[in-house]
Write a structure and sequence with these properties.
Layout lengths: L2 E6 L3 H13 L10 H5 L4 E7 L3 H13 L4 E6 L4 H9 L4 E4 L4 H12 L7 H13 L9 H11 L4 H8 L3 H14 L5 H10 L4
Parallel strand pairs: 1-2, 2-3, 3-4
Length: 201
């Protein structure tokens, strides 16, 4: 199976370092300026995408919503379990910190090409404990609430969401807390995972 690979990172030196790492494993890659233009093709696509700023998370969400078959390996700003879960909830099929060793980057990309994923055990436990704790009587969010969840899945912060929805930031926090409670989710990450699992976002 032929897979085209793109590496998307704002730092040219880092981007070329990842490309060199992949090249050593016999994997060619490109560094397009516009990832969405590059996606318009019939081949299977794999994107190694750095997530640092809010617009990076927005790009991830948009990419995965627009192209259902895209394979995204997310390069994370830290190694926290919640950051991993957020990337997976936003559509990435694998994630690792940006400071990972080249061998880890190669192994992750090769696994994804082979139809598998590589996850830290703590992340796997976080995902499975979330699934086990998901209640069957969780409320389905309203269309307005689903729109809020879509915005949050792109990396938007509550202040931005409040401004867009016409609420104070404090009121927005209250509304979201109530939404998470009705969804039987403990926090934003769990709510986004639940929404994605149910096909709501």
């Amino acid at each position: 199976m032929f897979v085209r690979i793109a590496v998307f990172d704002p730092l040219p030196v880092y981007r070329h370092g990842v490309m060199a790492t992949l090249r050593e494993a016999g994997l060619g890659s490109e560094s397009p300026d516009d990832i969405f233009t590059w996606m318009d093709d019939d081949h299977l696509r794999l994107v190694v995408l750095s997530l640092q700023a809010g617009n990076d998370w927005e790009r991830l969400g948009r990419l995965c919503r627009t192209y259902n078959d895209v394979l995204v390996v997310a390069l994370l700003p830290d190694d926290a379990v919640t950051t991993h879960v957020r990337a997976l909830a936003s559509g990435a099929v694998a994630a690792l910190p940006r400071d990972a060793q080249p061998s880890a980057v190669r192994a992750t990309v090769e696994a994804v090409i082979g139809g598998r994923t590589v996850l830290p055990i703590d992340v796997l436990r976080g995902l499975t404990s979330h699934r086990a704790s998901t209640s069957p009587d969780a409320a389905v969010p309203s269309p307005r609430e689903l729109e809020w969840l879509r915005h949050l899945s792109t990396g938007a912060i509550v202040a931005e969401l409040a401004d867009q929805a016409g609420y104070s930031e404090r009121m927005m926090f209250r509304l979201l807390r109530d939404l998470y409670k009705r969804m039987r989710a403990g926090n934003r990450t769990e709510a986004l995972l639940l929404a994605r699992e149910n096909g709501w976002i």
